[in-house]
Fold OsmC family protein.
Amino acid sequence: MGTTNHISTKWLGKMAFESNNPSGLNLRIDAGPDDGGEGSGLRPKALMLSSLAGCSGLDVASLIKKMKLEVDDFHIETIANLTDEHPKYYDGVTIEYHFYGDNLREDKLRKAVDLSIEKYCGVMEMFRRFAALEVKVLFHR
């Protein structure tokens, strides 16, 4: 049997919720004004994209350190297509890894990204179950 994650999410009134996290930090979820909320929190579907980028980003950052690579800056752009019909879900996601630096080892960085998406990132594996994924690795000098 695997590890269990237990998250507690409490209604704060109107459309707002507060959700805890094993880190000890809480996060607020809220709908936008169009949906009866006040926009005082994060949107659930967008949070899934942050989880995806964060999960893979942690892998890549760890591998950059392990491989002793020189990277000045690194960010991930996650662009997702939401279906038109309810329940709306992401059917396609593009994940762009942007690396900046004067001394980028492109082969090693591609390997780091590949290891994350193929082997380590559990959130990526979950997304793979319901969405077509496209991965791009871009280098900026």
In short: Residues 72 and 101 are 5 Å apart (CA to CA).
